Predict the structure.
Amino acid sequence: MARKKKKGRKVRVDFRRNRQQRRRSDEWTRRYHAERDRLADERTSESVRIKGELSRKRTILVDEQDAPIVDEALWRRGIVCAVYGLICRVADETGQPWDCVVRRVLRTLLIEQRSSVTVGDRVWFSDHCREHGGERVGVIERVEPRRSALSRRDRRNREHTIVANADQLLIVASIAQPALKPHLIDRYLVAAGKGDLRPVICFNKWDLAPETVTLEQEREWAARSRREPDTLAATTAEGVITEFERLGYRCIRTSATRGDGLEALRVELRDHMTVLSGQSGVGKSSLLNAIQPELGLAVREVSTENEKGRHTTSLATLFRLDFGGYVIDTPGIRQFDLWGVEPGELEAYFVEFLPWIPHCRFNDCHHSVEEGCAVVAAVERGEISVRRYYSYLKMLEEAAARRDSA
Ligand SMILES: Nc1nc2c(ncn2[C@@H]2O[C@H](COP(=O)(O)OP(=O)(O)OP(=O)(O)O)[C@@H](O)[C@H]2O)c(=O)[nH]1
Ligand SMILES: [Mg+2]
Ligand SMILES: [Zn+2]
C-alpha cells in the first residue's frame, strides 16, 4: 500500500552569511571549505532570493518539529561519530564513514533552536560522492529530535552537549591512581538523572586494590604525576562502592590490565548506547580496548605527562561494538559543572532523600537551613550518608549562586 506523503509546512528562514573569521583549519576543513558554500546552495527545493548583499531568505518545507521533511529517496540515514570543526564524521547504516558538512540553512535552524550537531545525533544526509571523485562526502540535511542529552556547563558558561541520544552513562572512576573522587560520581549521577540516562558506575584499576597498593605508594604516585595528594585512601574504596550499591546503583569492579569484570562490563554495554566519562587517566580508553582490541584507542601513562598534556583522548568519538551497541569515548574531565539544574530540582536526583521529602515542614524545603527538615533529621540519625549530604549541599550552593548571578 502506498504511504501517504507527509505534508509539510513552509517556513521562511534567514539565510545568514557566514561572516565568521576563518579559524585554524585542519586538512578536511581546508579541503571542503571551498565546497561548502556551493553544496549549501545547490538544493533545488530551496528558493533563494537575493536581497542585497547580506540579507537573504529562503523557504523550506518543515515538519511539526521544525525540521526539514525527510526525502527518503535521496537521503541516507546516519549517526554522528565525531565532530571536527565544521566536518561531522557520520557512519551510514552499514557502518561506512562519511565526511559531512551541515547544510547552511539547517545550521541556521539549529542556531535558532540553540543546538548544534553533536556526537550521537541521528541524521539524514545527502550523497555528494559524485562531485568528489567517489569519496564519501555528504551534506547533513536533517537532525532527528534527541531522545536524551548529556550536558555540562562549559568554561564560557554555556551548555556543552557532550553526547546526544545515549541511554546509559558509564561513570568511570579508578580506585587509585588517580584517587577515587566520590563527589565527582555524585555529580555524574545528577547529570545522568537530568539527562535521562541510566548510570552505571565502573570502578577500574581493581588490580591496585588495597592489599597491593599502600597509602605510601599512592602518595608517591600522586607526587610523580603532579596530582593532588591522595584525598581518600585506596583502602576506603570498598566502603564508597558499598554506599553506591546500597542506593541501588549498578557498580562494576574492573581492571583493564588484569581483565577483572570485563564480562560484566560487556553485559552492561550490549545493545545500548553508552557514553563513558570520568577523570583523565582512570582508564576509559583502556577499558574499551580491553573489551574490543581492534578499536586501538590511544592510552597513556598519566604520570609522565605534565599538567597540560595529560588528556590522552581529546575528542568525543562514537564506536560500534562487535557484540551490539555503541560506546562513546570522551576526554577526561577535572570537574563536571552541572547544566540546567535548578536548586529546587536537585533533591529529585538524590534517591535516598525521596522518602523523607514529603515529611519536611515546608513544601519548598531545600534541606539546608530550614526548620523541621526531615532530610536533615535522617542525616542526623545516620539514615542518609553525611558524605552524600555534603555533596548535595555543595551542588545546591552552586546552583543557587548561578541562579542569583543569572
Ligand atoms: N594498573 C592499572 N592501570 C590501568 C588500568 N586501566 C588503565 N590503566 C592505565 O592508566 C593510564 C591511563 O589510561 P587511559 O585509558 O589512557 O585513561 P583515560 O581515562 O582514557 O584518560 P583520558 O583519555 O586522558 O581521559 C594508562 O597508563 C593505562 O595503562 C587498570 O585497570 N589498572
Ligand atoms: Mg582516553
Ligand atoms: Zn527538608
Summary: The CA atoms of residues 85 and 271 lie 29 Å apart. The mean pLDDT is 82. The chain has three domains: 9-143, 165-329, 343-405.
